[in-house]
Design a protein that fits this description.
Helix content is about 60%, strand content about 15%. By secondary structure, the protein is an alpha/beta fold. The strands form four sheets. The chain has an eight-stranded mixed barrel with strand order 13-14-16-17-18-19-20-21, surrounded by four helices. The longest helix has about 50 residues, at about 300-355. It is elongated.
Length: about 900
């Protein structure tokens, strides 16, 4: 709005400057004419030039106004500008005779052509300003113009025109031209008056200035004609100021229109203004008085008599049109009134039969009107509430909200205000309603507050039902995790010193097995029974919730000592020893429980629930069917595991995994026959990690397949490089450990084939080492191993003798190598039994044509004992520790310099 006001202020300032200049020029011109400054000749030049300049300024201003408007307004201002321009040409011709030729201007002359040519342009310009649409309005305007024109013609004839006509002239042309001036003035005056009468809005001032200017020129023309007829017109006349003032007023009107540039002078059919209606009759009255005076005081003038008769006839016709127009308007008004009555009846029917109750009240909330629909909803009659405060029928606890809504509606009248409250039924019950308050106090038709009352009981019930469902578990009807967390938050806020809270997380052990065996419907029934039993065990006021699939939470709101949550857990275990009856069978549900609390002041609901879950996981990890209290170390272990899992996800792509290799040695001469690959993780912060630190996590996260694929590829590549650099007969072998998860991978055969092909490594030198726990589990494992064995890959049975049923593995699997478990090697010297088992395994392998490799040789006496037992091969720290690939290169290079690939331990043994 600020830019608009600045623009409006600048428009008024510019127009005020233009008006002041116009007034100054007019006053200066009039003073010059009256005082005849610098003599008659100079004053005559000022007279002629001043009139021409004023008309030229009007033409320029009209041109600017035409450029700033569009449509009919542009054409109207252009025609007015053309009128002023041709009048300027006439004044130029006049000045040529008087100032250049120094002679009296002849009559008629070229100046008269310019002056009279300005008339049709002015009439056309006035006519092109917007008019009325209705035929009756246009005809009435035309008759008003004709009446005014006739009256003005009569007035002009009685005052000036008759004198000119009667004075005669030298010729018929001069007489006609002499009559043309006042007649054209009358036409322009009538058109200007009619234009002003049908214009409203911001265009009133510009057009008023134009009309005033036209009237100034009219009066000046009439006065000049009168003086000329009386032979008293001189070269310098004060009345010449009228032409200057007239055209400067036209220029001011055009300037005002150009500054506003608003299409305000539009056609409409609004009723005529009072002065517009009276104007024709005023002109007729004046004309009639003059006609009577002329005919009574002297000889009768036929022209005046006939003119008066015609004007009176036009007035009669005008009245008949007015009567007919009023009749048509009355018919239209009656039709509209009937339609309005039908609309009101329809609206009243809608109000009375709508689904809302409509109440009209004053600014204080006192009821003035109530629709009859209130009987259907609240059993009141329409008059029972009138005169009473609306708030008296509301629930006491809702009255403050209604008062606030009423105040808001009175402040912001444009926006309806909604208030939820309870309305009293006549029988005493309370109904949930939505009251919409609309402020119509400013409307003359209503002058009231409109209160629309809608029964929203069904919606409220649905909202409460949705809120309940959103906060409760549908299977057990217990609070869900979100509601449980909110209640823990509330309990924390209300807790006081000495009265803390505690949270227990409970999980049904092996619940998945029950779901798989009996189905999910039975599982849901069991969950409901567990929740019901927990609800009976806890103290009154405590909360039981289902916070997971088979996980429950208990909130103890009042904990007076540290052992109180533990006693509750023990009580739960005691009650759950009683079996549940499920589908005609009895089942005992074992629980694991995690406890956190009593809570500290800085604890949050999220932290308490998280700590209880951590303690629950610790209870499950330690054997299930027990409880564990939360300890900060548990959280540290969880955080450490999460960090390790996050790092593990990127370790492979960041090339943080490496392989270490431990040589397998032929025990009779110490020759290296191959290397076993061990996976290591070169962690950037934790250092070098063994598989026991991360392999289980890799299996849980599904990364073990990618790791196994990488180990196979890297081991084959290193083995091929050593074979080429250190040729031996037979060629060096490479052993790779395969886990249970790796054996179940459908792509194991493809991965092994791809690794050998990519490294040009013969499958005959690749050994897959299987732990006893990974050998016989899974239907597809044996066929998969048989296929690999057919392709040349050797299979080794690792940790032989340390687990159950090793002989069945030797029977069912294509085993080429048996690795004697390191525990037997370590106890051979102290345990005859272990020594006997070791000898039996070696003999068994030799008998079956399998190579036996003793694992864990750490001392010279162990090596000597194994050689005595005719053990073909072995590996251990005594022979060599696991080495990185670069270390293997150095070891092989050292062995090759001494001839053959004999480990240094054997060279020392032979030297000793």
């Amino acid at each position: 709005m600020a830019p608009y006001f600045r623009k409006f202020r600048h428009q008024n300032r510019d127009f005020a400057i233009a008006a002041a200049l116009a007034a100054l020029l007019t006053a200066g011109f009039g003073a010059w004419m009256a005082l005849r400054v610098a003599g008659v000749d100079v004053s005559q030049a000022v007279d002629d030039v001043g009139e021409g300049v004023a008309a030229l300024l009007a033409a320029a201003a009209c041109a600017v106004a035409a450029w700033r408007h569009r449509g009919r307004m542009r054409l109207a201002w252009a025609l007015l500008g053309a009128s002023a321009l041709v009048w300027t040409a006439g004044e130029a011709a006049w000045s040529y005779f008087e100032l250049i030729l120094k002679q009296e201007v002849p009559f008629p002359s070229a100046a008269d052509a310019g002056f009279l040519a300005a008339v049709p342009f002015a009439v056309a310009g006035v006519a092109f300003f917007p008019g009325r649409h209705r035929a009756a309005s246009r005809l009435a305007s035309l008759l008003d113009g004709a009446i005014i024109a006739g009256a003005l013609l009569l007035i002009s004839w009685a005052t000036v025109l008759g004198t000119v006509y009667l004075a005669g002239s030298d010729s018929t042309l001069s007489m006609l031209l002499g009559l043309a001036y006042p007649i054209s003035d009358i036409v322009i005056a009538v058109m200007a008056l009619m234009l002003l009468g049908r214009t409203a809005g911001v265009a009133r001032l510009p057009l008023l200035l134009v009309v005033t200017g036209l009237f100034a020129s009219l009066l000046t023309d009439s006065a000049s004609a009168y003086l000329t007829a009386g032979k008293s017109y001189e070269k310098l006349q004060l009345i010449d100021t009228g032409w200057v003032a007239g055209y400067l007023l036209v220029a001011l009107g055009a300037i005002r229109a150009a500054l506003s540039a608003a299409p305000a002078a539009q056609a409409d059919d609004r009723p005529f203004g009072r002065w517009t209606l009276v104007l024709p009759y005023v002109a007729v009255t004046i004309a009639a008085v003059l006609a009577v005076l002329k005919n009574v005081g002297g000889a009768p003038d036929p022209f005046l008599l006939w003119d008066l008769i015609i004007v009176v006839g036009l007035v009669v016709i005008r009245q008949l049109i007015v009567i007919w127009d009023n009749y048509a308007l009355n018919q239209k008004l009656e039709s509209q009134s009937a339609a309005l009555r039908d609309s009101e009846a329809h609206f009243r029917s809608l109000v009375q039969n709508s689904g809302d109750v409509v109440v009209l009240a004053d600014a204080q909330g006192v009821v003035r009107f109530v629709s009859t629909s209130i009987d259907r909803f609240f059993a009141y009659t329409a008059t029972e509430l009138e005169g009473q405060a609306f708030s008296e029928f509301l629930h006491p606890s809702d009255r403050a909200a209604f008062a606030a809504g009423l105040k808001k509606a009175l402040t912001a009248s444009a926006m309806p205000v909604g208030v939820d409250c309870r309305f009293r039924h006549k029988l005493g019950s309370w109904t949930h309603c939505e009251v919409t308050i609309t402020n119509l106090l400013h409307r003359s038709s209503s002058q009231a507050l409109v209160l629309n009352i809608r029964d929203v009981t069904d919606r409220k019930e649905m909202e409460e039902r949705l809120a309940y469902l959103g906060a409760h578990d549908p299977v057990t009807n217990l609070p869900n995790r979100i509601a449980f967390r909110n209640q823990v938050d509330e309990a924390l806020e209300r807790s006081a010193p000495g009265r803390a809270i505690a949270v227990l997380a409970l999980d049904i052990d092996d619940f998945k097995l029950l779901n798989d065996a009996l189905g999910h419907r039975t599982g849901d029934d069991v969950l409901g029974m567990v929740g019901g039993r927990l609800g009976k065990i806890v103290s009154a006021g405590d909360v039981v919730a289902r916070i997971g699939a088979d996980e429950f939470g208990i909130l103890m709101k009042t904990v007076l000592n540290d052992n109180q949550p533990v006693r509750l857990a023990e009580r739960i275990f005691q009650h759950f020893r009683t079996p549940f009856k499920v589908e005609e069978r009895e089942m005992v549900m074992r629980l694991s429980i995690g406890i956190t609390g009593p809570a500290a002041l800085e604890d949050t609901a999220e932290n308490l629930m998280r700590n209880a879950d951590i303690a629950l996981n610790a209870a499950k990890a330690r054997g299930k069917g027990r409880y564990e209290r939360y300890e900060p170390t548990q959280h540290a272990a969880i955080s450490d595991r999460m960090d390790l899992e996050s790092d593990l996800a990127h370790a492979l792509e960041r090339r943080q995994f490496v392989l270490h290799y431990q040589p397998a040695v032929r025990l009779r001469d110490g020759t290296i026959i191959g290397f076993e690959a061990f996976l290591r993780w070169n962690h950037p912060r934790r250092g070098l990690l063994a598989p026991g630190d991360f392999l289980e996590l890799a299996e849980e996260t599904g990364m073990v397949s990618a790791l196994q694929r990488w180990v196979l590829g890297q081991a084959c590549a290193d083995g091929r490089r050593w074979q080429l650099k250190f040729p031996a007969e037979p060629a060096l072998q490479v052993s790779v450990n395969v886990s249970q998860r790796g054996l179940t991978e459908a792509d194991l055969v493809a991965d092994v084939t791809q690794a050998c092909t990519a490294a040009a490594f013969s499958p005959a030198q690749l050994v897959l080492e299987l732990t006893q726990g990974a050998t016989l589990e899974g239907k597809a494992i044996v066929p998969r191993l048989l296929e690999l064995h057919e392709r040349g890959v050797s299979v080794a049975l690792d940790d032989f003798g340390a687990h159950a049923a090793p002989l069945s593995a030797l029977r069912d699997l294509p085993v080429d190598i048996v690795k004697l478990d390191h525990s037997f090697v370590a106890r051979m010297a102290t345990s005859p039994t272990d020594a006997t088992v070791a000898r039996a395994v070696i003999d068994l392998g030799n008998a079956l044509g399998m190579m036996t490799i003793a694992d864990g040789i750490e001392r010279a006496d162990q090596l000597a004992a194994l050689r005595e037992m005719n053990c073909p091969a072995g590996q251990g720290y005594y022979l060599s520790r696991p080495l990185p690939a670069a270390g293997v290169d150095r070891l092989l290079a050292e062995c090759a310099r001494d001839g053959g690939l004999v480990v240094p331990a054997f060279r020392l043994d032979r030297a000793g």
